Amino acid sequence: MLKGIAASAGVATAKAYKLEQPVVVINKTTDVDAAKEIEKLDAAFEKTIKDIEGVKERAAKRLSEEELAVFDAHLMMANDPELIGQMRNMINTDGVNAEYAAAQVADMMVAMFESMDNDYFRERAADVKDVTFRLKCNLLGLEIPDLTAINEPSIIVAHDLTPSDTAQLNEYVKGFVTAIGGKTSHSAIMANSLEIPAVVGTTGILEAVNTGDVIGMDALDGEVFVNPDAETVERLAVKEKEYKEEKQALKVLINAKSVTVDGHEVELAGNIGNAKDAEQVIANGGEGVGLFRTEFLYMDNDHFPTEEEQFAVYKQVLETMKGKKVVVRTLDIGGDKKLSYFEFPEEMNPFLGYRAIRLCLDRKDIFKTQLRALCRASVYGKLCIMFPMIATVNEFKDAKAVFEECKAELIAEGTPVSDDIQIGMMVEIPAAAVLADEFSKYADFFSIGTNDLIQYSMAADRMSQKVSYLYQPYNPAILRLVNMTIQGAHKNGKWVGMCGAMAGEPNAVPILLGLGLDEFSMSATQILKARKVVNGLSYEQMQEMAQKCLSLDTAQEVLDFVQSEVK
Fold this sequence. Notes:
Helices cover about 50% and strands about 15% of the residues. By secondary structure, the protein is α/β, with parallel strands linked by helices. The protein starts with a strand and ends with a helix.
């Protein structure tokens, strides 16, 4: 049995299809005919573009427009004059062969992306590898495996799956296991979209498996069994059946209310990164969008998105949600989220530096473009806007003043704007939690971002493996800050949501419910499970339990106590 990261839920057993890509060996040749090498390079680029277009066409049978966008990004990269230009330049300047020039430029670009302090951009290195690997194979005349040819139930085992690999998966593919990767990689995102099990980051899988071996995969617990015995196969079959039955049974809760046995109602919403995700929230019974991460509009782009581009997306999300509340977080970049077309200042600690609302208040031109687009879209649904990384009351007031300015400008131009837009803020800095009762005099709502609140409170970078033990959502200090935020909001009649990872954790839901959290926002696939938990609890009992949790000493004590109280 090998351990990995459960990236897309499910259980499956099938024969292994070991994806072995052609071995690319690049030799350096000098004193070449530069014109001929450039001609060869151009022909390989042309074939690469045709190949990507072909993969996109085949993938279109199973994927949505949103999911197919990755191929548009690949096509943009394959057509990038800068990429081609650097390779041609190396051929001309250094007198080297096309293969060597392609490999050198590709390695440089991959290294640049992989060195960034940002999960999203590090994982975009996979896109560069994907496109340039295909280019090098085309230069060398090597065949890339065609996954669309799989015609029996199979589990794919690979070092990694590129976006174009994943998009080729057909109905015979029951799941995949990779040696590397994380939950936010393209392959993991697509596996979730295709609803097939995926376990990534499985060390040792390539050494342990050959094509034709039987693989049993438990993508609920991140376990992979190679040639499992009869007992393990039976256990996995039972677990797969139970998982599918539970998934089916939860569907009866799609239109149910999120209400406790003693009649206390809360709202279960979804976190989204694009317009397509909003459909998933509806499909999973979400009562709204609790967090629209608009930074992806900027990060998936090669320029600051225009007012028109943003307006179209916000309008689409609001229309998809059909009058249900949509909470949009304004631009939250900086720290670990960089833009390829914007240079951030070099800082010793960018997490505590020029980012989020700090950048927006400094660059009001960028901020106003987004706020104008949001104001224009507001007439198409129930819009709430929240500002990230607020530390002081004046910051919130300044941000709200920019919003009011944009609203007034649009009305003066004769553009309709809803008169029912709620303006709130993220509570992710301990100072904001401590001063919640003051902030709630000015903000219409709070949304607690536990991921950052925990790392700032514990002085522990959540990207650092060495201090990962300090990422403790159940630490009583964190629970007290959450309690302080909720009490501070309720004092002035304001509502509080939570959009951090903690909101969807089954062990955290009872505590948060007891502390009086009004809205829980999570991944769409977690909503029905959370509803089942809420529907089985007594609000009165959870209030007592939550107060007891606040008085305990350690995170483990809290977890043990909750598990003993909630059966």
